Every structure is written in C-alpha cells, then in structure tokens.
C-alpha cells in the first residue's frame, strides 16, 4: 500500500498499490500471467503465420512445390492456397498474421518490462483481438463446410487465437475496461480456462466429426 497526504489535514490517506490491485483480480487477469500468455500465444501464432508465408512464396517460385503440410487430399496447405478464401483481401491471409501478432507480442514484452497501458489502448487491443477471432471463426467455417480441406499451420493459429481472445476479454472485464456486472466479471475470471478448454475441444470435435471418414479411412 502507498500513502499520500490527506488534503483535509487529518493525516494520510491510503491508496492501493498496483501490486495490491493486481492481486485482487482473478489469476488469468493478473499482470505477469496475462503478459506471458499473450507473449506465448502471439509468438506461436506469428511463427505459424511466418511458415505459411514462406510456404506460399515457395509455391510462387515453383508451381510444383509440395508444402510441408501436404499430408493428404484433406490436409494440404497447398490445396488451401489455391482457394479464394486464402486471400480474402486480395493478398495471402498469413500476411495479416505476420503484422497483427506483433501487437500482442510487443504488448506482452512491454508489460513484462513494467509498462502499464491506458484504457484506450486496451480497448484497441480488445477490438483487434475480437476481429481476429471473428476472422478465425470464419476461416474455420470455410475449411469445414466449403473448402473441406485442412491446413495444419492455420489450425495452430486458430488454437492460439482462442486463449488470446478469451484472456484479453477476461483481463479487460477484471480491470474495468469492459463494463459489466460483478457477477459476470467473477464468472469470466473463475471459468476463463474452462471456457478456453471447451472452445478447444469443440473446435477439435467439429474437425474430427466433419473429417471422420477421411481420418478413419472410410
């Protein structure tokens, strides 16, 4: 706790320190655990995006190039590259990941160095992560119900966006960036990892069910 002069002249007023305020929120929303999660998910997502960019360049250089994740007709980055969904905005989707994942990585590194950001920054990060999550959900739906082909590195990005979205939302609820009733804030904090696990399991189950015949050789 820190003390500041009490302007009423009656003594000193006690205000909570940043550490004390951090300890009052759910573990996933605390400064260092959240920063490490942001760093790991951002770094893994960036690496997967980078591999996809390199694989895409290789296919441009040599049309006969076989990508490293061309496992079968149903699991093939090369086949996915040929679809319009792989370049939704007129350029390869992984280029978005290369740029976008730098933001959570940089944010995490700054937090671990002791930085504290203002509310407008967290609103911006929440907006970006939410849009990224929506984009990933769209890509998931296209892979399962339209293209019917999986991309391993794309699925790594999906797997990283789930905890990133959940934990950024939980962090912003816990610290008042997103205004919500106390019961909602407490539920989100207490069940953050359960929500993440359910989304992981649901995604994996949807992939298995949709591609069951391919996986089982039917």
TrEMBL record:
Transmembrane segments: 34-54, 95-113, 120-141, 147-170, 191-212
Residue stretches in coiled coil: none
Gene3D superfamilies named in the record: VKOR domain
Record keywords, A-Z: Disulfide bond, Membrane, Oxidoreductase, Quinone, Redox-active center, Transmembrane, Transmembrane helix
InterPro entries in alphabetical order: VKOR, VKOR_Actinobacteria, VKOR_sf
Cell location: Membrane
Domain Vitamin K epoxide reductase: 31-172
Tagged with keyword Metal-binding: no
Membrane topology value: Multi-pass membrane protein
Family statement drawn from the similarity comment of this UniProt entry: Belongs to the VKOR family.
Descriptive protein name: Membrane protein
């Amino acid at each position: 706790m820190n003390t500041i002069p009490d302007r009423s002249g009656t003594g000193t007023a006690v205000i909570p320190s940043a550490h004390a305020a951090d300890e009052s929120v759910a573990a996933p929303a605390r400064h260092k655990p959240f920063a490490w999660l942001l760093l790991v998910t951002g770094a893994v997502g960036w690496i997967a995006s980078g591999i996809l960019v390199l694989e895409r360049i290789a296919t441009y250089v040599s049309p006969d190039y076989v990508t490293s994740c061309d496992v079968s007709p149903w699991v093939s980055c090369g086949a996915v590259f040929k679809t319009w969904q792989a370049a939704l905005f007129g350029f390869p989707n992984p280029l978005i990941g290369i740029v976008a994942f730098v933001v959570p990585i940089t944010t995490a590194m700054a937090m671990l160095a002791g930085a504290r950001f203002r509310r407008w920054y967290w609103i911006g990060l929440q907006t970006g992560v939410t849009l990224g999550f929506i984009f990933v959900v769209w890509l998931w739906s296209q892979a399962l119900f339209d293209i019917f082909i999986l991309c391993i590195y794309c699925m790594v990005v999906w797997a990283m966006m789930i905890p990133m979205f959940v934990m950024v939302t939980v962090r912003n609820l816990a610290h008042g960036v997103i205004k919500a009733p106390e019961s909602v804030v407490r539920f989100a904090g207490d069940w953050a990892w359960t929500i993440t696990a359910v989304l992981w399991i649901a995604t994996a189950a949807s992939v298995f069910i949709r591609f069951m015949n391919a996986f089982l050789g039917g």
